[in-house]
Amino acid sequence: MNSIRPLIPILTAAGILLAGNGLQGTLIAVRGAQEGFSASSIGFMGTAYFAGFLIGCLIIIRMLRAVGHIRAFSALAAIAASATLLMATVVDEGIWTVARFFSGICFAGLFTVMESWLNSGVPNSARARVLGLYRIVDLGAVTGAQFLIPIIGPEGFPIFAVMAMMISLSLVPVSLADRSNPVPPDDVKLDLRRAWQISPIAAIGCVAIGMTNSAFRTMSPVYAQAIGMSVADVATFVSLSIIGGAMIQYPLGYASDRSDRRTVLLATTALALAVAIILMLAGSSDRLLNFALIFVFGAFAMPLFSLSAAHANDRAKPNEFVMINAALMLFYSFGAIGGPFAAAAMMEWYGPHALFSFTSVIYAVFIVLILYRMRKRPAAPSDERGRFTALLRTSTIFARLVPKPTSRHENETGNTETGHEKSRNS
């Protein structure tokens, strides 16, 4: 506990920011629909956010080296708060799109700063506990923040003011409770070609999952409103998908540790596809049915990124753990840029249930590719597989927070080297 106590301020700041970011993503869709913005416009705002997020991931390390953690965090938080207030001041599709783009840059940078700070301050013996706390903070903050929308109301200035306050308040624990200013992390090697060579199916999968998850995260509030849900129901709808993914992720990971991961990835994708088809065809405005279906959909759709990354890590060399996960994060971002706008265009043409038509097509193509790769390449030997780890998609350096245990084969032979050089952690 003593090793974790100094990190509590950073975890507090992370919770505030994760809540603000999760709140903003849902509010933009809910309020935009109320303002009469088209589905395509709302989808393009999601595309702008993820484009900004990708840029933020690429430039933040240089910013940290230039000005340090505290100054970078302060500057990015100020810009993110200002962008939030700008959306409250000027209700315009173009202005909101620009604001979301800069929000994407800022949140990518803010998450990178926090995760770099956590990584520098936690010993390897406490990494599992810190990572567990971080996931709990993420789940609690993002799901809890959704219900601020019905409590405060999506209309008017107050909800935007609360978001700006949350972003600004994240500065308090960072500025007052931690006097350190860690050494900026080394640049993450981003070798996309090598990542593709290690596991084409993981690279393709992360693009596909980026398309579907970003489309769902951006457009699911629009879908929920379009089928007649209240604002409170929309918040519940979004939260249930997140909770479903969190609850089932570790059982799926446990199963993948004991078999060909591609088999588990295939089965999970097929189940996500099946639920998406039911949502597409049901055409029901029944609130409880949609809640149940979206919980099951989230349970199978949300863990797909971590399962893909786990498969790639089984194929990577021992010193490629951070590189492969950073590269997969970029592949995910590439897909996330295109997903919201493509899904929104289909929703405009064919109605709200086309969100799940879009998702179903992507999953179906992914399933075909998994089957093809399973015929082309044998499964990784069981003694070379690491343990499944649920990965957050908050920054390209998140993988550095993950504990670095040896593979099962190394444990059995008594080789106890740890660190990036011996990691096969997945």
Word description of this protein:
With 426 residues, this protein is mostly helical. The protein has one domain: MFS general substrate transporter like domains (Growth Hormone, Chain: A, Up-down Bundle). It contains 17 helices and no strands. Helix 1 runs antiparallel to helix 4. The longest helix has 30 residues. InterPro entries: MFS, MFS_dom, MFS_trans_sf, MFS_YcaD-like. One of its GO terms (molecular function) is transmembrane transporter activity.
At a glance:
Pfam families: MFS_1 (PF07690). This protein has 426 residues and is mostly helical. The chain has helices at 8-34, 39-67, 69-89, 93-121, 127-146, 148-152, 158-169, 171-176, 192-198, 200-226, 231-257, 261-282, 287-301, 304-315, 321-350, 354-376, 408-413.
CATH superfamily: MFS general substrate transporter like domains
Shape descriptor reads globular
The CATH architecture comes to Up-down Bundle
The parts where pLDDT drops under 50 for at least 5 residues are 405-426
Topology, number of strands: 0
Number of domains: 1
* Helical residue percent band: over 70%
DSSP strand (E) fraction?
Answer: under 5%
Question: Which radius of gyration do the C-alpha atoms yield?
Answer: 21 Å
CATH topology: Growth Hormone, Chain: A
Characteristics of this structure?
single chain; 426 residues; mainly alpha; 17 helices; disordered C terminus; transmembrane transporter activity; MFS_trans_sf
List the helices and strands and how they pair.
Elements: H1 8-34, H2 39-67, H3 69-89, H4 93-121, H5 127-146, H6 148-152, H7 158-169, H8 171-176, H9 192-198, H10 200-226, H11 231-257, H12 261-282, H13 287-301, H14 304-315, H15 321-350, H16 354-376, H17 408-413
Helix pairs in contact: 1-2, 1-4, 1-5, 1-7, 1-10, 2-3, 2-4, 2-10, 2-15, 3-4, 3-7, 5-11, 9-10, 9-15, 10-11, 10-14, 10-15, 10-16, 11-12, 11-13, 12-13, 12-14, 12-16, 14-15, 15-16
